[in-house]
Amino acid sequence: MAPAIEVKNLTTGYRGHTALQDVSFSMPPGKFLGLLGPNGSGKSTLIKTLIGLLDPWEGEVSVLGETPRAVRRRVGYMPQAEDIDWTFPATVQEVVAMGLYRRAFGLNRFRRGRDEQDRVMAALKRLSVDHLADRQAGELSGGQQRRVLCARALVKDPDLFLLDEPTAGLDARSEEEMLDLLSEIAADGASIVLCTHDIGCAYERCDLTLFLNRNVMTYGPPAVTITEEMLNRTFEGHVLVMGSGGSRFALAPHDHHEHGDSHEDHEHAQHSHALHGHDEHGRV
Amino acid sequence: MECFTDPWQHEFMQRALLAGALVALASSVVGAFVVIKGLAFLTDAVAHTSLAGAAIAFLAGGGSVAISLGAAVAAGLTAVGVSVLTRARLREDTAIGLLFAALFAFGILLISRARNYTLELSSFLVGNILTVPTEDIIVMGALSAVVVVIMLMFYREMLFVAYDPTMAAAAGVPVALVQTGLMVLVALAAVAAFRLVGVVLVMAMLVAPAATAALILRRIPLIMLAGAFFGVLSVVVGLYVSYHADVAAGPSVVVTSVILFLLVFVLSPRGLAPTIGRVFAR
Question: Which of A186, A249, B257, B280 has a CA-to-CA distance to A280 between 20 and 30 Å?
Answer without folding.
Answer: A186
